[in-house]
Structure formats: C-alpha cells, structure tokens
C-alpha cells in the first residue's frame, strides 16, 4: 500500500476554495461567496464564518485562487473587529477584479471596528537613562520615522519644542540652525530641517548628512517645492537630534546603537505603555493598467493607520505647478476602473491618504474620514506622458516651432470621470505643507462634491493645471485654509499650460497671435458652484497664473473674496463676497472674462489690469463709494447699490432680503459639506464673520521720483501679482514719456525691493538711499518682474 503524500499549499487552497463555494451555496446564497477574517481565526482554517482566517493576506490569497480557477460570482471578504498588522501591503491585481454584476467587496463586519495598521508593535524592555529619560534596545533591522504609544502619535526630539497652538509647524525658530546651537550637537547625521519657502509658498525638507569643522550643517533634499528658493529665515525647525530630547512626550532613535529614548509625560508609566512604530508606506494597492485594468473592487468601512512619513521622497515635479509629489498613499489606485473606497477612516498617517495615479476611470471615494495625516488627503494625478508639450518648471517654456498644437491629451494615462464625495478631511499636512484636501493634476472630469475640508496648511482644493478640465466642484465646505502658508486660496488653481511663457510680454504676444492655443489643454469647462469657501492668508477662490475655462457661480466667500489672475474664458456670476470683493490681476488683452451679478462689499482690487474682458458690470455693491470708485475706472456702468440687509447673516445666510430690481438670484447658503450622518456629527463649521460696514481702506498713496509714479506694496494682492516673498517693496505705477526713467530698463509693474544693496521695503526707504547716494551716476536696483527677482541699472 502506497503512502499518501501531504497536500501541497496550492492543493490546500483549492480544497478550501471548493469548500467555501459549497458553504455559501448551502447557506442559500449562490450569488455571493463570503470569506471571513477574525482575530479568533487561524490561517489553517477554511475562511468560513465559524472557522475564519486570522490574516487578511491569507484570505486574499484564497480568493485569488478562486479567481484563477474561474470563479464568476460576487465575493465579500468580511473582516471582523480588531487591529491587523500587515507585514507587507495588500496588492490587488487585474486577475482579482470583480464585475459590475458581481463585485469584489472588502469590508468590515457590520458594526465592527476593523483597523489595518502599517505599524509594528515593539516589545521593549525599558531602563532609566537619567532622571527624566528612559531607554530600550530596539531589535536589529527595525528603523522608523514615527512612533506611537497607546495609539497616540509621539513627538520626535525637536527644536523648538512642539506647541499645538503655534503655526506654522507647531513651533518655529530663526535660530534652529544657528552655530550656537549646532555646535552642541555631537552627531546630527539623520536629523531633519523643515522650513517654509521664502515666499511661504509651501515648504522644504532636508536631511542632515554631516557637520563641518565650524559646526555648520550639511544638508541634502529640498526638492519638495517646484519653485526653488532659499528656506524661510524664521519659519523653520529641526527634529531627530538627541541633544534636543528635552521635553515630555519626545523620543529619539539611535539607529547606530539600536536604542530608543523616551521622555515620559507626567502620569505615564512607561512599562505599561504599548509602543508601535511606523513600518509601511502603503497598506493597499489596486494595480492594473489601461490594457488590463483592475476593476469593480470596493473597500468599505475599514480604518487605515500608522503609515510611514514620505516627505523626503516628495520629489516628482508637476506641470509648472509649485508642487512636487510622491505617488504613494495608504491606498494607491493605478490602472483601475469602477473601484470604490467607501465609509473608511484614514488617521495618523505619515504620508498621503489616497493616491489615484495615472490611468483610472470612474473611481469613487465617498463617505470617508481623513484626519491627522502628514501629507495630502486625496490626490488625483495623471501621467505627464499624456500631456502634449509639457513643461515642469515655472520658468520653462516650449519653443513655438516645437509646440504640439493638437488639442487634448496625448494618451489615456490620466484619471477621468472620478467622484470624490461626502468626505470629511481635516488636520492634514502635519509634516508637508504643499498639500491639499483634494489635489487634481493632469486629469479630466473629476467631481468633488459635498466634502467638508478644514484645518489645512495650504489649499483645501487645488487644481494644478488646465489639463483637461471638465471638473465639477459643488456643495463643498472649505474653511480654515492656508493656515501655515500664504498667497493662495481655499480653492486654488493654476493653468500654466503649453502656451505659457515666463516673460509676460512674450506670453501676451503668443496669446494674441494664437488665441486658440489657450484651450488646447483646458478643453472642458470646470464648474465651481454652490460652495462655501474661507481662506486665512489669501483668497477664498484663487484662480492663479493662466487658469482658463471656468464657470463660477452661487458660491459664498466668507473672507478673502475672489481672485482672477490672467487667464481666459472665466465666467463669474451670482457669488457673494462677505467683507471683500473682486481681485482681478494682470489680465490678458482678449481674456473674454465675465464678472457680473455678484454681490461685493468692496471696490474691485485690480492690479495691472488694462483690459477688462468682455463684461465687468451689473454687480451689486453694499457701499456707494465702492461703486463710484469702480465707475471711475470706466467699468460697472450698470452696477447698483443695495442696502446690506441679509436674511440671516449671523447664521451665514447672506442672501439679500430684497432682490427686487436686482440681478442677484438667491441660493442655498445653509447646506454645504458632508451629507452622511456619521460625518455630519463629526464635522465642524466655519466661523461666520461679523459684517464690516465701511468700504475699502484708504490705501494707495502715490509718490513721485523723476516724474514717474510709485506706491508702496500694501496688499496681499500686490504681493501675489508681483510674486514677492513678503508684502514689501516699491511698485512702479507709471513712467511717462517725459520722465528720465522712460528710456531706462525699469518698467511699469516692476517692484523695487533694494537699491544699491540696501533693502527698500517702502518709498521712504528708497528715498533715503537716493539721498545718500545722490552723488552716484548709476543706481543698482533689485526688482521683481514676471515673478522673478532681477538686477537692473538706472542712470541718475
């Protein structure tokens, strides 16, 4: 008699799969196969409800076996309550797809809390290092960038110390890298320097690679912003330095000695604490391609936590945007169709929450809570290979002779027809500052609806370029934005598309000679309607450089008003701008812009606008002086003044009590943001501002030098238009032909920030330099022109 050979692993899984199908049919449900995972299970079980698997990985492999054997029915992978630590990401491929009639659903058991963790529990034996700090040996091979104790994120040793009430960075110091401080650091290799861009346009991150004999830090990195600059002189901090382990709740990992140090807070008993370290960047990837997409997979009701920080990998530049990105997230979706992420939680993550990358169609992200994460919440980003004549830096341009003039995308390697709805996004960008609640780039027809987004360092919603438009943004509640940066919007967009040129005169001539080119990328109209926006350091709605082909209506702007920098074909109507108004900046000659029937509370804050588009008229003012000021510019012939009587301004309803004889149409100002009950209960609402009754502040005093007219840079709008790092400098308003400066290289719109190597923050400082150096035959001026610092010389 022959001995029976033991089952192979493959045979075992096949047998289990057969048993599962039989089990489901026996239960009277021949359409859906359910496979169970539970903390009470074993991976040698067969995955039924009574004998579940212990690991999602094992269950996934069993389902893969079913798929390979030709199973056609719907599948549910049901995970019961508990924390599941993954040793590697769950990567689903095209062969694991469901169908529209028989989807593949991965979900938490009804009413149960299921957590997939990218962390790794640490088994530590603690001993005293000194009277305040404890230490423990970490097993060889384990390194980490973030640490948690009892599910609370801990602070890595830093200077200055963490303070939740301070922005940016929860604490910053100009002397963070001073020699006085760095000379005290014995071995800072591996430390990090975090800083804002000098213009507060996002941030930079550097790693310390060494220290020279003087004690100066040697740094690598700084690639996280696509508008390179020096780091901000004040807004910076350092972390991961042992000598800065001086405050309760801080930790430091010595990777060479494999020793973890921790400074317990009062009341903490370190021996009773459960420590977990970040381990993986990614928990789930749905991976296919255009030819073989992964499709019809749904992930529902699961929590994702403790992914590793990725800020040093944020390096891929986007199209002439200020952004660089890292294509990773707790969930990454690439090459997918009709996949859904529903009613899940993304918390305490080091990097992005979700990244929808390259080819994707009809992805749905809905009902999720995303909070307390290091980078961005939802990123929808295509492939530059899909873009015709792409450029990647602001100062780059495509020579006309080499420009591809075919309209639209070159390939299908971009997301389209995706829905991002009913998500609560808050407290993001805890590490990286050039992030958004929803970031869209190189994509088409993305719907962003009924989301509540707040407490973010930069934009709540950002569209990085004009490719390829067709987006719909409606009923979002976006507030407490641009909290740690500046010169941006609660909604922000750029449109530096293929016709773009860094020299304004050249760009004007291109747009004039080739008017059809402005829509070669922005082929579909983006609609922004029925949203509530509020921005702390910029504009509520900010259409920046070249943003083109937008229709904007029925939006409530609570703080910063609405800005249209140069671009084409923007129609803006029936919006309400509380305590603010319209900010048109440096428009093109034939922009075809329309701004009408809006309720404004200040005169238009135009900067270098010589051509007023197709229509800037029929707007409704609450202050007669503001209307008179605009009519003196030759616009608003049919503008009208109404009494500032609103239905219920204290509750945020700024609809007019009386719309008789006005062009304004009332719209719903009470129902913005998330719609699902669980998220409504969690979501905050913006602070409704008190009405300011006075009109525009009395600014704009002008000064004369050599018969030319100048003024101080006084507003964020003037700073933004010129691309200045701060609200400072002397703006050139007019250079008449009679002026000695007319033949010089100084131009209208230039901002003088220094003269003869001395700063000129205002005209008084410029005058002081001119008086001191009146004996000189030539002046060296540092100016900003076309958002770039330049050096010119002017003869005295």
Automatic annotation (TrEMBL):
Give residue ranges for domain PDZ: 729-794
* Secretion signal span: 1-26
Keywords, sorted A to Z: Signal
Name of this protein: PDZ domain-containing protein
Originating organism: Olivibacter domesticus (Pseudosphingobacterium domesticum)
């Amino acid at each position: 008699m022959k001995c029976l050979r033991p089952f192979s692993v493959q045979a075992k899984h096949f047998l289990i799969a057969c048993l599962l199908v039989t089990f489901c049919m026996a239960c009277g449900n021949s359409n859906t196969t359910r496979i169970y995972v539970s903390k009470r299970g074993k991976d040698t079980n067969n995955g039924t409800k009574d004998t579940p698997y212990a690991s999602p990985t094992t269950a996934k492999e069993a389902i893969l076996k079913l798929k390979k054997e030709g199973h056609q029915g719907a599948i549910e992978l049901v995970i019961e309550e508990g924390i599941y630590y993954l040793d590697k990401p769950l990567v689903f491929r095209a062969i694991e797809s469901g169908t529209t009639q028989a989807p593949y659903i991965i979900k938490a058991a009804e009413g149960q809390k299921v957590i997939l963790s990218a962390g790794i529990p640490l088994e530590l034996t603690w001993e005293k290092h000194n009277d305040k700090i404890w230490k423990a040996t970490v097993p060889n091979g384990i390194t980490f960038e973030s640490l948690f104790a009892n599910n609370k994120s801990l602070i890595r040793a830093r200077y200055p110390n963490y303070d939740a009430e301070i922005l940016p960075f929860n604490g910053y110091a100009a002397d963070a890298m001073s020699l006085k401080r760095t000379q005290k650091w014995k071995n800072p290799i591996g430390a990090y320097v975090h800083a804002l861009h000098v213009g507060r346009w996002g941030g930079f991150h550097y790693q310390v690679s060494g220290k020279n004999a003087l004690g100066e830090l040697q740094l690598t990195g700084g690639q996280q912003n696509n508008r390179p600059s020096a780091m901000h002189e004040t807004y910076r901090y350092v972390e991961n330095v042992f000598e800065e382990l001086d405050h309760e709740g801080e930790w430091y990992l010595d990777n060479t000695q494999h020793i973890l140090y921790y400074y317990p807070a009062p009341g903490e008993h370190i021996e009773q604490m459960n420590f977990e370290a970040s381990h993986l960047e990614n928990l789930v990837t749905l991976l296919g391609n255009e030819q073989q997409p992964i499709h019809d997979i749904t992930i529902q009701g699961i929590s994702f936590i403790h992914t590793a920080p990725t800020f040093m990998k944020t390096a891929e530049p986007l199209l002439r945007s200020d952004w660089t990105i890292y294509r990773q997230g707790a969930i990454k979706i690439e090459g997918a169709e009709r996949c859904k992420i529903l009613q899940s939680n993304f918390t305490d993550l080091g990097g992005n929450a979700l990244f929808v990358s390259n080819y994707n169609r009809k992805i749905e992200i809905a009902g999720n809570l995303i909070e307390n994460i290091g980078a961005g919440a939802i990123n929808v980003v295509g492939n530059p290979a899909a873009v015709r004549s792409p450029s990647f830096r602001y100062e780059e341009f495509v020579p006309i002779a080499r420009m591809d003039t075919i309209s639209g995308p070159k390939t299908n390697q971009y997301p389209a027809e995706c829905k991002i709805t009913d998500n609560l996004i808050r407290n993001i960008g805890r590490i990286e500052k050039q992030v958004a609640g929803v970031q869209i780039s190189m994509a088409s027809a993305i719907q962003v609806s009924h989301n509540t987004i707040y407490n973010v360092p930069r934009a709540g919603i950002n569209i990085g370029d004009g490719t390829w438009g067709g987006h719909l943004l409606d009923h979002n509640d976006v507030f407490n934005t641009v909290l740690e940066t500046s010169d941006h919007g609660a909604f922000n967009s750029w449109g530096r598309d293929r016709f773009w040129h860094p020299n304004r005169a050249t760009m004007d001539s291109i747009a004039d000679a080739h008017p059809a080119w402005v829509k070669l990328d922005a082929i579909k109209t983006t609609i922004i309607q029925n949203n509530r926006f509020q921005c702390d350091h910029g504009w509520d709605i900010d259409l920046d450089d070249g943003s083109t082909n937008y229709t904007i209506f029925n939006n409530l702007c609570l703080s910063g008003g609405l800005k249209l920098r140069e671009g084409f074909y923007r129609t803006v109507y029936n919006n309400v701008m509380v305590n603010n108004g319209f900010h048109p900046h440096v428009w093109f000659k034939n922009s075809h812009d329309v701004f009408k029937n809006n309720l404004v509370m200040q005169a238009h804050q135009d900067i270098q606008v010589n051509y007023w588009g197709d229509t800037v008229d029929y707007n409704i003012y609450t202050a007669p002086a503001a209307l008179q000021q605009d009519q003196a510019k030759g616009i608003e012939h049919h503008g009208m003044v109404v009494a500032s009587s609103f239905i219920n301004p204290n509750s945020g309803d700024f609809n007019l009590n009386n719309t008789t004889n006005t062009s304004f149409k009332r719209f719903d100002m009470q129902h913005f943001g998330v719609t699902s009950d669980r998220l409504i209960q969690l979501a905050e609402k913006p602070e409704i501002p008190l009405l300011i009754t006075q009109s525009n502040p009395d600014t704009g005093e002008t000064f004369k030098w050599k018969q030319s007219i100048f003024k101080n840079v006084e507003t964020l709008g003037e700073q933004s238009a010129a691309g200045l790092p701060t609200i400072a400098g002397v703006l050139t308003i007019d250079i008449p032909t009679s002026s000695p400066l007319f033949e010089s290289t100084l131009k209208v719109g230039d901002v003088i920030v220094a003269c003869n190597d001395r700063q000129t923050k205002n005209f008084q400082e410029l005058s002081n330099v001119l008086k001191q150096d009146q004996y000189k035959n030539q002046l060296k001026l540092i100016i900003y022109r076309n958002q770039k610092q330049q050096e010119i010389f002017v003869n005295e």
